[in-house]
Amino acid sequence: MKFITIDKNNWTKGIDKSRETYQLFGPVKDENGCLIKKLDSDVQPDMGYYESVMSAKSVLFPQTEKILSASLDESLEDHHIMKRAENDYSPRAVLGIRPYDAKAIALVKLNFDTKEFQDPYWCDAYDVTVFVGLGITRPGPFDFSTSVGTGPFCEDDLDILLADLDDHYLAKILTPKGDAFAITCGFDTMADEKESQVLFDILRKEAEKNITSRVEINKLKDKTILDLHEADFWDDLAFSCINCGTCTYVCPTCWCFDIQDEARQKQAFRFRNWDTCMSPLFTRHATGHNPRGTKVQRVRQRFMHKLKYFLDKYDQGIMCVGCGRCVKSCPVNIDIREVCNMMNAYEKQN
After folding, report:
1. Cα 106 to the chain's mean position, in Å?
2. How many Cα atoms sit within 13 Å of 134 on the Cβ side?
3. In whole angstroms, what is the distance from residue 292 CA to residue 243 CA?
4. Residue 114 to residue 187: CA distance in whole angstroms
5. Is 64 helix (H, G, I), strand (E, B) or coil?
6. Fewer CB within 10 Å of terminal CB in the chain, N or C?
7. Phi, psi for residue 191 in degrees, rounded to 5
């Protein structure tokens, strides 16, 4: 681990130099707000952004991803045989990712990269990606990250963590991948390690003090699944839900997807697309049977998965990093903080 300083006058030059080696992704503002997306050759990341509508999960897990292809030309020996699609896995870097979004990637990794199974598309993208985090000095009103195991300056799954100090960035190099990216950019002005760590600690404590929103999760592990499943608050909670799925799309830890096949002339393709557990079609079987055919069943599944099933299975905390995007974006004001606190405090009445 080491620390370097990056003069903002040299930032653009260094980032442009890195384009020779890395695909770059970062925050860009448009009419829909700030999004984390691929940067065109003439676009710099907006490092002064306050918050992004979406997280960086699409860098590893695109909304639509071609995963297999096959030729339908019967004159070819290997016709109708699906093969892995040729996707671009050259080195890439995500600039300005918020620490809680990097923590979300660490949680998603528990699903896509296990001892028993490795999703090759997600894992190959992850292996070539450098995550350059930007600490949060002004947490928003929906941020409750400190009560779910992360925070404004959390280092989990980051390769570099930047602190914005007005005329320069102080960079904490956390991994060899991060070091290689800094070298590629030409960022090599060393900073005093002890003084820099003290400054990071001060910034972290000040930012954490400004987070006023919290959730309680200390009792969730001891709750019985069936007791929570049969709790009396699910009907009231689901009453206002319109099953739009917004919460799942903006969530950095949601990983549901669907598979779709398409044929074009003599080529066939298989795509993976984001899906949502809030959709009535999500669990509908080919027979027509739907084990979660009602709205209350779907709402309950979403929160039970986030706050109980995941916790019990992985023992890595809840499947939420406290970014607050779902709270801010929900058109009917369903609030995961309230749901979490209700579940945490619930006691079955005999």
Report:
1. 9
2. 22
3. 13
4. 35
5. strand
6. C
7. -120, 155
Does 247 map to a domain? yes
**Residue 267 domain-assigned (yes or no):** no
What gap in Å lies between CA 92 and CA 18, rounded to an integer? 10
Taking the C-alpha atoms of residue 4 and residue 163, their distance in angstroms, rounded to an integer, is 11
Kindly state whether residue 333 falls inside one of the protein's structural domains: yes
CA 307/CA 253 separation, integer angstroms = 12
pLDDT in tens, 113-151: 998 999 999 999 999 999 999 999 999 999 999 999 999
List, in order, residues 6 or more apart from 214 with CB less than 8 Å away: 144, 146, 147, 337
Number of residues assigned to the chain: 350
Q: Is residue 81 part of a domain?
A: no
Task: Read off the amino acid at residue 323.
Answer: C
Count of alpha carbons within 13 Å of 12, Cβ hemisphere only?
A: 6
Is 200 in the same domain as 250?
no
CA 171/CA 131 separation, integer angstroms: 12
CB-count burial class (<10 Å; 0-12, 13-18, 19+) for 125: buried
> Are both 44 and 166 inside the same structural domain?
yes
198-212: per-residue pLDDT in tens? 999 999 999 999 999
Which phi and psi (to 5°) does residue 40 adopt?
-65, 165
Q: Residue 328 sits in which domain range?
A: 220-256+276-345
Whether residue 92 contacts residue 24, with contact meaning beta carbons closer than 8 Å, is answered with yes
CA–CA dist 129, 84 (Å, integer) = 20
Tens of pLDDT, residues 180-232? 999 999 999 999 999 999 999 999 999 999 999 999 999 999 999 999 999 99
Q: Strand, helix or coil at 306? A: helix
- Cα–Cα distance between 35 and 53 in angstroms, integer? 6
